[in-house]
From TrEMBL:
GO terms for molecular function: catalytic activity; molybdenum ion binding; pyridoxal phosphate binding. Gene3D superfamilies: PK beta-barrel domain-like. InterPro entries: Benzoxazolinone_Detox_Enz, MoCF_Sase_C, Pyrv_Knase-like_insert_dom_sf. This is MOSC domain-containing protein YiiM. Residues 28-165 form the MOSC domain. It comes from Parasphingopyxis lamellibrachiae.
Length: 216
């Protein structure tokens, strides 16, 4: 994989989106260098740490390439004019789900990050975009994005280079794992689920999904 340019690093604050329900899905670009630690970008928040954030979901990467697809469905949607509509911390072009794998490590500025799982969309995505059908469309299209854990803290800026430095499990693309565990295709592939349940770089939550589909 060629070295690619980080178009934007983004962070957000938790704000009310429905009554007292809060979300930090709204992200804005960070100016200048920012620290990247075990819990992600300095200053970035998650409203509900039970299901968002933590070491295995420290950074959310959503492919910039997918914005063109979403604009074909909603050409005038104001949130699709710039990065951040999907709650992503990292925006990069030419890096998509069928080209990256669980366990892939990347140099990001002076930090090193590792893909831990795909991103499973929730209702907040459709709510903030006033597009309730979007969650189902993300699942159907597998345009899901993914999460990184941080294996080496460092700093990064928009305009820095992101480079893959290891690819230990090329058979487990993010697209394939998402299809098996979220789209339901794993029901007909128990051997694949068995392997995923023991795949160490996959987050514990997603290993548990594989085990649950096996009936454990």
């Amino acid at each position: 994989m060629d070295a690619l340019t980080v178009e934007a690093l983004l962070s957000g604050r938790a704000v009310p989106i429905r009554g007292e329900e809060k979300s930090a899905i709204g992200k804005v670009p960070v100016v200048g260098a920012t620290e990247i630690g075990p819990l992600g970008l300095a200053g970035d928040e998650q409203a509900d740490r039970r299901v968002h954030g933590g070491p295995d979901m420290a950074l959310h990467h959503y492919p910039r390439d997918h914005y063109a697809f979403w604009r074909t469905l909603k050409p005038d949607h104001p949130m699709l004019s710039s990065a951040g509509a999907f709650g992503e911390n990292i925006s990069v072009a030419r890096l998509v789900e069928d080209g990256v794998c669980i366990g892939d490590r990347f140099a990001l500025g002076s930090a090193i990050v590792e893909i831990s799982q795909a991103r499973q969309p929730c209702w907040k995505q459709g709510h903030v975009m006033q597009w309730p059908e979007m969650v189902a469309l993300i699942v159907k299209s597998a345009r899901c994005g993914w999460y990184y854990r941080v294996t080496k803290a460092g700093t990064a800026s928009s305009g820095d280079i992101i480079t893959r430095i290891s690819n230990p499990f090329p058979q487990w693309t993010v697209a394939r794992v998402f299809s098996l565990l979220i789209k339901g295709e794993g029901k007909s592939e128990p051997e694949a689920l068995e392997q995923l349940a023991g795949l160490e770089p996959l987050s514990g939550v997603w290993r548990a999904k594989a085990a649950a589909l096996l009936g454990r």
